[in-house]
Amino acid sequence: MNHERIAELRALEADCYGVCFYMLQEEKSALQAAQAALADLYRDGEFWRLQVQERERQLFRVAVSRALKQCGQ
């Protein structure tokens, strides 16, 4: 199960980083925000119950949230 989750998150990794980089315009901050977002999603049991399209929307929401938090640091 964990290997499946990791594989699915790896498939979303570039999109997550892209959202974070678009918002932050700085590589290091975007990387930190994307890593935090992916870790949040990994631990979110509800995320894994969603359909694929809903997971993509949730990824966007979490990436935006983490990028905004990164701005405040």
Descriptive notes:
Helices cover 82% and strands 0% of the residues. The longest helix is centred in the first third of the chain and has 23 residues, at 2-24. The protein has 73 residues and is mainly α. α2 (27-43) crosses α3 (52-71). The relative contact order is 0.19. The protein has one domain.
Percentage of residues in DSSP E strands: under 5%
Number of DSSP strand runs: 0
Low-confidence stretches: none
Straight-line distance between termini: 34 Å
Reported for the largest beta sheet, the result is: none
Tally the helices: 3
Q: Any idea how many domains?
A: 1
**What shape does the CA trace take?**
elongated
What class, by secondary structure content? mainly alpha
What percent of residues adopt helix (DSSP H or I)? over 70%
Mean pLDDT: 96
Rg of Cα set? 12 Å
Order of secondary-structure elements: HHH
